[in-house]
Specification:
This protein is of the alpha/beta class. The chain has six helices and seven strands; from the N terminus they run βββαββαβαβααα. The chain has one domain: Glucose Oxidase, domain 1. α2 links the parallel β5 and β6. The termini are far apart.
Length: 194
């Protein structure tokens, strides 16, 4: 009996050039079409996903440890994410951080964001850098039942970001105030904030 479990590819990323990347889904079982971009940051994946400047985009993360600290309400840049999907090389692991309130995969499900792992994200970044912006479709289906004709049509029908008024979709409807992250430290006599 083998001591490794073989997993089935149940997610894919299809580019407008026709390139197809197979991988393993996480987050929401969903499908999205958007502009493929990359991010090379070593920290702050939750802040990146909730940054409104990423609206309409699928983010390719090059750093390997995405999801390892889970999520929490303090690290939200806005009330909800504006990204359409994300790509990682490694699988999402269980969170290991004292600030974690929800696993990364559950957080993605909550916001209906699909993810795909098992992709060579650095090679994909080079492709974006060398060839320019790409329209991409990311699909995660547990049953791996993909209709390539439908996928091709969805990619062709996507209008692109150029004439979209994304400010309408990411702007707050009312003024809000933020909560200080280090409130406990500031009020403590043992710390001096400089």
């Amino acid at each position: 009996m083998p001591n490794t479990l073989k997993r089935q590819n149940n997610a894919l990323l299809v580019l407008d050039s026709g390139a197809i990347f197979y991988g393993y889904g996480f987050g929401a079982e969903n499908e999205s079409v958007g502009e493929l971009c990359f991010n090379t940051s070593m920290t702050g994946y939750q802040e990146i996903l909730t940054d409104p400047s990423y609206a309409g985009q699928i983010i390719n993360f090059t750093f390997p440890h995405i999801g390892n600290v889970g999520t929490n309400p303090i690290d939200m840049e806005t009330g909800k994410p504006s990204v359409l999907g994300l790509i990682t090389r490694n699988q999402i692991t269980e969170p290991s951080n004292w600030r974690n309130t929800q696993s990364f995969s559950e957080w993605l499900k909550k916001y209906k964001i699909p993810g795909i792992s098992g992709i060579d994200t650095r090679a994909l970044t080079r492709k974006i850098r060398d060839e320019g912006a790409k329209t991409a479709l990311l699909s995660y289906k547990k049953n791996a039942d993909f209709n390539f004709e439908t996928i091709k049509n969805k990619i062709a029908a996507w209008p692109g970001l150029k004439d979209m008024d994304l400010a309408k979709t990411v702007t707050c409807s009312a003024t809000t105030s933020g909560r200080a992250v280090f409130t406990d430290l500031i009020s403590s006599k043992s710390y001096r904030l400089v």
